[in-house]
Amino acid sequence: MLCLVRGDRMSRIGRKPIQLPDGVEVKLENNEVFVKGPKGQLSYVLPEGIGLTIDNRTLIVTRSSDNSRHKALHGLARSLISNMVTGVSTGFTRVLQIYGVGYRAQVSGDKLTINIGYSHPVEFKLPEGIKAVVDEKQTTITLSGIDKQLIGQVAANIRAIRPPDAYKGKGIRYAEEVLKLKPGKTGKK
Fold it and tell me: Contact at 8 Å (CB) between 173 and 96?
């Protein structure tokens, strides 16, 4: 049985305060949040009905009403601001693995060149703010940057060049991704 509780309960995520680490500054101007830290600066425009209180080294995200739209945006705004604080202080990384004979990647400047079984090498231009490092075996790509959303999108775009095959597992996959391979046509055991 599903029980919905109404009243003045706030979002569990939205009401959690955000602690600022040393070296991170937050500024609020005209409903836009600027977060500056040792790794860079990010900004976010707060949605209508969502506010931010800066108290000492703590940020508290508030909402103006219990309107369902404001409730939905409350936790989202808090998560995005928290990710900005983490990004400018420690940064984010995403690791991709390349599986397959002869499949490899190389980085030169802001271009990632991937040989992935096509008749030509695929060149992927990295957006500003994203750095890629390839290991010496040329099969592990480590993406790093301060914007969590941008890193996730770039990793998804690189993975989409050659998603992992369901039968042999060849292709590009996330390091933590687990594949359940299908049996072949003969139903090998």
Answer: yes
C-alpha pair distances (Å), 157 with each of 67, 125, 126: 36, 11, 10
71 SS3 class: helix
The structural domains of the chain, ordered by start, are: 18-89 (3.90.930.12), 92-174 (3.90.930.12)
CA-CA-CA-CA torsion sign (165, 166, 169, 172): positive
What is the residue-level pLDDT of the chain in tens, covering all 189 positions? 444 545 445 558 888 999 999 999 999 999 899 999 999 999 999 999 999 998 888 999 999 888 888 888 998 999 999 999 999 999 999 999 999 999 999 999 999 999 999 999 999 999 999 999 999 999 999 999 999 999 999 999 999 999 999 999 999 999 998 989 998 887 555
Which CA distances in Å does 89 have to 19, 37, 55, 85, 93? 12, 6, 19, 6, 13
SS3 for 82? helix
Q: How remote is the C-alpha of 17 from its chain's centroid?
A: 21
